Amino acid sequence: MAITGAEDGSVRISSIGQSSQHRVLPQLTGHQESVEAVGFSAQLPLAASAGVDCCLRVWEYNTCVERATCVHPDVVTRMAWHPTMPMVITGCADGVARCWDLRTGGLVQQYRGHTAVIQDLVLSPDGSMLLTGSDDNTAKVFLTTGGSAAN
After folding, report:
1. Residue 106 belongs to a domain with what CATH number?
2. Where are the WD repeats (predicted)?
């Protein structure tokens, strides 16, 4: 499977098996502006997309049904799936990274410390640490269990 997001707000999931089996599923609708990040869960049959409309949208990719909308106070620039849990971390233009539980759509944790847009983020292979990079010319490492940061 592959997932793509576009400037017009569209999100599409495609089956990319052998060329005779290639199939594009129905468009996932909901975003009103550019989609900046997309991805699949390793644990559940879920996909997520995030973007300029300040939303992280969670989709059941087998049915193409939206499961949850996680509203942010500003543009969502990046996202990363937790490697062992059904959670997504988002990076936002307000300088805050947020952890969302995709089973419920609820906010679990906020990681603060940046004063400008988060331009990238990555989780460690075991999910215990989050590295963020920002337009404030800093990178921060957060322990995902406690929310603390080190410059």
Report:
1. 2.130.10.10
2. 28-63, 69-110, 111-142
User: Count of residues for the chain?
Assistant: 151
Residue range(s) defining the domain that contains residue 99: 2-150
Half-sphere exposure at residue 80, Cβ-oriented, CA atoms within 13 angstroms: 21
Q: Residue 23: is its pLDDT beyond 70?
A: no
Measure Cα distances from 115 to 87, 94, 96, 140 in Å: 24, 7, 8, 12
Work out how many domains the chain is built from and give that number.
1
- DSSP letter string over 74-121? S-EEEEEE-SSSSEEEEEETTS-EEEEETTTTEEEEEE---SS-EEEE
Hey, what are 138's tokens? Answer: 């800093």
Q: How far apart are CA 38 and CA 33, in angstroms?
A: 14
Look over the chain and give the mean of its residue pLDDT values, rounded to a whole number: 87
In this prediction, residue 148 carries a pLDDT of: 46
Average pLDDT over residues 91-113: 94
Q: Which residues contact 79 (CB under 8 A, 6 or more apart)?
A: 37, 38, 39, 48, 50, 56, 88, 89, 90, 91, 121
